[in-house]
Structures are given as C-alpha cells and as structure tokens.
Amino acid sequence: MERRRFLKLAALTGAGLSLPDGLAALAEAAESATRPDLVLAHGAAPEKIVTAAIDAMGGIRKFVSRGDVVVIKPNIGWDRTPEQAGNTNPEVVAAVVRLCFEAGAKKVKVFDRPVNDPRRCYVQSGIAPAVKALGAEADYMDDRKFRDMALSGQALKSWPLYTDIFEADKVINIPIAKHHGLAKLTLSMKNWMGVMGGSRRQIHQKLDESLVDLSMKIKPTLTILDAVRILTANGPQGGSLADVQKLDTVIVGIDPVAIDSYGATLFGMKGSDLGYVTLGHKLGLGQMDLSKMLIKKVSV
Amino acid sequence: MKNIRRLTQGLFLLLFLFLFIQTESKGNDELGYPVRLFLDFDPLIFVTTLLSAHAVAKAFLLSIITIIVTLLFGRVFCGWACPLGTLNNLAGSLKKQPADRQGRDWYRVKYYILTGILASAVFTLQPVGIMDPLSLLIRSFSISIYPLFNYGVRSVFDTLYSVDPLGVAAATEPVFTFLKRTVLSFEQSFYAQNVFIGALFLVVLGLNLVEKRFWCKYLCPLGAFLGVLSRFSLLKRSVSEDCTECGACSRVCQGNAAPDEKGKWKDTECLYCWNCDDACPQNAVHFGFGRTKSAASMDLGRRRVLASVFSGIAVVPFLRITPLARTNAQDPRLIRPPGSLAEKEFLKRCVKCGECMKVCTTNGLQPTLLEAGLEGIWSPLLVPRIGYCEYRCTLCGQVCPTGAIKKLKLEEKVKVKLGLAMIDTSRCLPWAHARPCIMCEEVCPTPKKAVWFEKVQVRDRQGKVHTLQQPHVDLELCIGCGICETKCPVLGKPAIAVSSVGESRSKDNQLLLE
C-alpha cells in the first residue's frame, strides 16, 4: 500500500471509530481507501457523466455535507457560447450545483472574474442562467471582497484573493481543458487566476510558479475537469468551431496535479510537458505520475 | 390643471430616466427596451438629419407624431413632456418669484439659433446636437450627471461597508444591492470632459435662477422649432371681456407669452401649461379649438434672420478648413465605434447624444474634444487604454438615433476593422526586456488570432539565454478592437496600440495594398 493511501485509510479509520455508528463508518473508510485518484467518465449527456464520475468517487455526500456553503468556480472568462469551448460547459456546472443541493448544501455560489465584460460572459456562457434556475447564486465578483493574502510562494509573496473562497465550507473547481499560448494548456490549476484580484497581467512573467503558489493556497474539495468540449488551438478563448473537439468526458479528482497531468493527455501531451505540473509535483502539491494512480473509467 | 400637468411631466421624466438607466448591457445581444425613444420623437433632429445627410432614419417617423401633436395643441411637448423642460421647472422652483416681473425680450434669440442650425444643415453641417435639448440632456446625464450620481452613492455605501459603524453595514448592504439592481450602473464609469459637459448642463439649469425656464424661452432650438409650428396649431387661447388686466397670469406664465396683454399673446411662446387659466381671478382665460386668431404676429426682423442664415452657412467652411480633413493629417487616435460611417457622412449624422458612450460595455467610447475638429466635438471615439471594443457586442449601433453608427449584425460586426494594432518593440516585455508575456495574444478575440508569436532566444544582462515568444500583429486579421492595448501590462504608454489606419469605413486611411 502506498504511503498516501495508508495515511488516508488510517485517518479515516480513526474518524470512523470516533463516530457513534463506527462500523458503518469503518466500512465507508475502507471504501474511501479504494477510492480512485481520478475518475474518467465518458458519455453523451454532461449531467449523467458528472453524476457517474462523482458517484465513482464515492458520491457527492462524501464531499458536501448538509448545511454547507459551497463555492463552485467554473471558467467564465470569455464572451463565448458553450459550443466555442471558451468557458466551462454550463450543463456540467449545473449538474454539480444540482448534486450539491441534493447533498443538502445551504447555499451554492458560482462566480469567476472574467477577462471580457462580466455581464456578457455570465450570460453568453450559459452558466449564470443555468445555475440561477437551480437556485444557486451567480453574482458578479465584488471588488471589496478581495483581501491581500500571504502566499509566500515561489513567485507570489502575497496577492489579493477572493474571500468567499476561504469563507466557504466547500470549494469545487470546475475548469475546462483548453489550449493556452504561454501555459500551453489551461486546466485546473490555472483556473484559480479567476479568484485573483488586482492586475493579474504581471503573473505571466512567472506563470508556472504563480500557478503552483495559488494551488498551494487554495485547496478545493473536489475538482471536475470539463472535457465535454476541449479547445485545441487559439485558446484560451477560441472562437472557431474548427478548434473545438468534442470528447464528452469529465475527469474528477482531488489532486490538482494529477488532474492536470491527466488533462495533458487529452491533447496528446504528458503532464511533464507542463511547467506547473512538473513544479507542483516537485514541491509536493500532488502526483503527476499517472502510473502511480488508481484511475477509474466509467461510461454512461 | 396644474396638478395634471405636473403629473404628466413627472411621468415623462420618470420614463426618460427609466429608459436612460436601461441603456446598459444585461449580457444579452439586445437591450430589450426602446432606450432612444425620446430622441426618436425629436422632430428637429429628424429635419436636420434630413437636410444635412439627406437621410431618413426610420425611427424618426415617430417624430411626425410630435409634429402632429404640436399642430393640434401647440408647444405642449415643451410644457408637458420634455424632460429637460421639467428639470428646468424643478430648478426654477428654487427661485423666488420677484413681485414685479419684467420678462426679458430675448425670445427671438432661439429662432436665430434655429435658423442658423437649419441653414448650416442645408450645407451638410449637423450642429444640432450641441443644443438640441434631448441630445444635450442625454449627453450630460451619460457623461457627467449619472456617473457623478453613481460615484456619490457608491462612496457612501462603500464607506459604510468598510467602516461599518455600529454594525450598520448589515442593514445598508441589502439597500446597496437593491440600488445596484435598479438605479445604479453596472460599474462606475469614467468619461473625459465630465466636468466640462456637466458644468454646461448645470449652467443651463442655473439659468433658471436668472429667470425661470430661461433655456426654454430664449435658447432652445427645439422649442423654437415647435414654436414655429405652434403658429398653426388649432388649440388657441382666448381671454373674455371679464379680464381686468390684473397681471396675475403674467406672473405665472412659463413662456413669457405676454398673456396679460390683450391681442399680444404669443402663441409661439406659450407652453400650454394652463397656469394662466388656473391663476385668473376672473376665470377669463379659455383654451379652445377653432377660435378666431387672437395672437400677436411673430416679428423676428428680416435682417436678423438673414444674418443668422449667413452665420449658419459661414460656419460650415469655417469649421471644415482644418488639416484634420486631410487624410495624411487626421488624428490617429480618432478610432470610431464599429459600424460608423465614413468620417464625412458620420459627422453629417452624429448628434453627440452620448447614447453609444453610455451603452458601451467597457467604457471605452469617450467624447472627443478636438480629435475630430470642432465640428465633431463630443462625438464618440474609442480610447483603448480605457476600454476596448467587445468582439461580440453590437450595442452602440443599436442605440444610435441617426445611423451615424450603423446597426450591424454580429456576423458583420466581427469583420469591421476599427483600425490596426501595432507593437512598440521598445516597450514590449519579450521584445525589449527578456521576460515572457502573452497578454495581447491571449486576449486577441479573432478566431484565428491576429497576434502571433515568433519563438526566439534572447540573452539577458547576465548572458542567460531565455526562450521567449515575441508577439507580431497580422494586419490582415487585426480588427483594431483594442483589447490588446487595454490589457497590455505595460501601463502608461502601452507596448501595443491601435490607431485608426486600416479602418474599414475609410477608403483613404489604409495601409495594405489589397
């Protein structure tokens, strides 16, 4: 048994024993120990593959508890429609919102700091209308809610970050897999640029380091990489349908490095081709070696 | 009658403000409300555009309704509907009525202004927007008053939020949220010349302290236009034999229409406010249709009219003998909104109402000062350092009342070049400073990006080799939207900037051999 998995099992067994119905919890803990590192779900209906993938991870109740305030962070960066694959697929986001409410979440907040006009991005992406219809909040980000936070990282010593992320009970990251001119690909770790305040432009001078610094600070409960459609060129906003490939896939996991390392394979790359994946692995943020992971594939 | 009129005025003002506030993107491609409705009802703009550009904007057919209403009832538009007139009323209420009122005899001035405007319009100039009351009001609100209002309200709530005295923020924040959803703009907007344009507006309101409705009586060209039509209106005022010439009506008259002098009542000046009817102790005043003509004749003086005609004509070449008119010498900063007509045609139509600047989602559309010459003052130009042209947005063309900015379909709009971007390699990080940066490429919105990279190896001061991507602009693909300039991290003078050369609307202002 690997060290990580052993620790997980030990911790969960301990937690299970301290609970009144220790036996059931024990069984659950044992199940967690065999929980895959990544689940890859494939199928035509976004909602179904999201649900199937999260079920394979142990079900949404493993991640979201009754009464939780949940923050969901999709990519709503661009004034693009879902077909153009510039933003996270709205059906994927909606499916996660629905699951959170099913698990008893008190409040679900969905937001991003777009590059284009926020109103157009929220509406044209289809995300705001889809999640509002389910009762989630899709407010534009409020300038007053950014606070300088210490990152003490490789590139970023401190940066104004969005406080809602840190005040939430649970955070779920839902990036989309896209091409990017500097990072090569934008996957889960780069999605945290959307909670940065101030002028984000300078971070491109040390992008890989900055992305790892951010991911060291923000630890999501769950990450769902949307690859229903991926953007293979002219990213990160795209525009031409010729650059869009329909993969009908989502990848769910907890370790951002693992997710991004697998995400690279969707584009015919390896995790080690991406600077921030390599650096994240090196600094202990996560595992990039796919051969050391339990990867479960489901089709629905 | 006074209360009915005030109610009507209030409703029109509220409708105006509602439509004004709705002149803002909600994220969809269309606005959903006829936000320029008031301008569409403006017959003066209809006529001057017809004269200067020989064009009939379809929407302006609504202004025929205003003409018909005026022919039936006189200047009721001024007295009952015009939002600027109502604001003048409100400002005028700050002035105590002097006991013995002696109105100025300046009412002719506005007819000379109107004559000048019409004469210059015949010779293709479109100066009407400077003084047209609706254009003036929308411009002043867009550029100055509304941003000022927003700034004030936001400052109050932001202070309450950050200081949070006695925990009141818990109570004020919901109020703030409500205001943001209703009367406040999406974001604080900033405009060049806000003080200048706002001050002129405050002068217009302040003139009410000199004399109530000073603007409407002496300056307003639309008032003059409707006044001329009023000569032929069917609704006339008459005074019965019971009149004792006590002068009560004269003190309440909003238009200086000489209601107390028998046979000298000026139908062109009457705003049909009915104050004289309300005030008359003898109940001797009547408004009715088809009465015998009891109004004074309008004598403007032939020489003065001729002088204003000639002034109007002379101002045309006066404004146009500027080097800016030469292709080689035009201001490179004059980047017009997408769908703008060629400059000459554009200036014949633009009435400087500021609707396009109000609706621009990025705040990039700003009023010109002299970039387009004095003729083009307060017309829109894109200032990419402030805001860029959103690739899939067509709102400015939707709100333009005169078609100076054409309404474009999305497929057409994304092909329109506003100008071209070029890189300043002496400031660009990968070009001059051996540091990676890809902002301009990342944000470039064309499906195949107009900004492309050349992979190069450069040495820094220590001799260390860096592999960098240096940006280039593909002039065939660049549409000059300016987002690269807006987002360029080299603040101040940007390392990539758009100028108007290559703009689709111009035949001459081109660079590439096609």
Mind summarizing the main beta sheet of chain B? Answer: 2 strands, antiparallel
The best one-word shape of chain B is: elongated
Shape of chain A: globular
Unreliable residue runs of chain B: none
- Give the strand content of chain B: 5-15%
Total helix count of chain B? Answer: 23
Task: Give the arrangement of secondary structure elements.
The complex is a heterodimer of chains A (300) and B (514).
Chain A: H1 3-18, H2 22-33, E1 38-42, H3 46-56, E2 69-74, H4 90-102, E3 107-110, H5 118-124, H6 127-133, E4 146-150, E5 158-162, H7 163-167, E6 170-174, E7 176-180, E8 184-186, H8 207-217, E9 222-231, E10 244-253, H9 256-265, H10 275-282, E11 295-299
Parallel strand pairs in A: 1-11, 2-3, 2-6, 6-9, 7-9
Antiparallel strand pairs in A: 1-10, 4-5, 7-8, 9-10
Helix pairs in contact in A: 1-2, 3-4, 4-6, 8-10, 9-10
Chain B: H1 2-22, H2 37-40, H3 43-53, H4 63-73, H5 76-81, H6 83-92, H7 108-122, H8 128-131, H9 133-163, H10 169-182, H11 194-210, H12 214-219, H13 221-230, E1 235-239, H14 248-252, H15 275-279, E2 285-289, H16 302-320, H17 343-349, H18 355-359, E3 365-367, E4 380-382, H19 395-399, H20 410-413, E5 420-423, H21 429-432, H22 439-443, E6 451-459, E7 465-473, H23 483-487, E8 496-499
Antiparallel strand pairs in B: 1-2, 3-4, 5-8, 6-7
Description:
The complex is a heterodimer of chains A (300) and B (514). With 300 residues, chain A is of the alpha/beta class. Chain A has two domains: 1-34, no CATH class; 36-299, Rossmann fold. In chain A, 33% of the residues lie in helices and 21% in strands. Chain A is built from ten helices and eleven strands. In chain A, the strands form two sheets. In chain A, strands 1, 2, 3, 6, 7, 8, 9, 10 and 11 form a nine-stranded mixed beta sheet that branches. The radius of gyration of chain A is 18 Å and the shape is globular. Chain B has 514 residues and is mainly alpha-helical. Among the domains of chain B are: 2-143 and 197-289, no CATH class; 417-514, Alpha-Beta Plaits. In chain B, 44% of the residues lie in helices and 8% in strands. Chain B starts with a helix and ends in a 15-residue tail after the last strand.
